[in-house]
């Protein structure tokens, strides 16, 4: 679902977590839609990291400063606490080393915003029980052409956050149709198609 500003729901939620004037790093920034929005509406200074050359061109056309690099390699070269906010939107599941990426994010910024599809979503479980890999709005690829390397439930992801000493300040969950869910505890692990987390390192 796209809002009037041209943002997906998760990007709209992410934008709402960024304070005006923040230094923002967007890992896997795509064509720079989020960063262009933050620069125009909140006066943020922004840097994107994107490995797809076509998307890099799209970001540059929007006036977004972007590094054409692999996320993991780019993070190693960024100094501690260089940014106020670091964003990872629908990208964690494509990472070879998600644990490393999250740890590095906590090093370079005091505030982290991460959005992920939920593999534990009830229709995904039903599809698995019927002998098929899940295909949905949040997981739209077939098993043989998916860019996704890691599949996590919200419960498993939150366990990883705890192990990395990342504090969850907020969690937003929403349905496949883009409707915000007002649920707490572990029920969203069944009912949410995806989630957005606002995190900070426990330091």
UniProtKB/TrEMBL annotation:
Coiled coil: none annotated. InterPro entries: Methionine_synth_MetW, SAM-dependent_MTases_sf. Pfam families: MetW. This is Methionine biosynthesis protein MetW. It comes from Propioniciclava sinopodophylli.
């Amino acid at each position: 679902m796209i809002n009037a500003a041209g943002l997906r729901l998760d990007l709209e939620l992410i934008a709402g977590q960024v304070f005006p004037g923040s230094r923002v790093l967007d890992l896997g920034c795509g064509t720079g839609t989020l960063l262009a929005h933050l620069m125009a509406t909140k006066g943020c200074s922004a840097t994107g990291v994107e490995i797809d050359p076509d998307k890099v061109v799209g970001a540059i056309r929007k006036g977004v400063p972007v590094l054409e690099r692999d996320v993991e390699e780019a993070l190693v070269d960024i100094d501690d606490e260089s940014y106020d906010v670091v964003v990872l939107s629908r990208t964690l599941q494509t990472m070879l080393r998600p644990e490393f990426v999250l740890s590095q994010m906590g090093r370079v910024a005091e505030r982290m915003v991460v959005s992920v599809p939920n593999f534990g979503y009830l229709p995904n479980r039903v599809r698995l029980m019927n002998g098929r890999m899940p295909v949905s709005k949040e997981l739209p690829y077939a098993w043989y052409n998916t860019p996704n390397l890691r599949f996590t439930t919200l419960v498993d992801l939150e366990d990883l956050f705890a192990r990395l000493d990342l504090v969850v300040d907020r969690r937003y969950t929403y349905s496949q149709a883009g409707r915000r869910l007002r649920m707490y505890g572990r029920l969203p692990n069944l009912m949410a198609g995806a989630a957005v987390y606002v995190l900070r390192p426990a330091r």
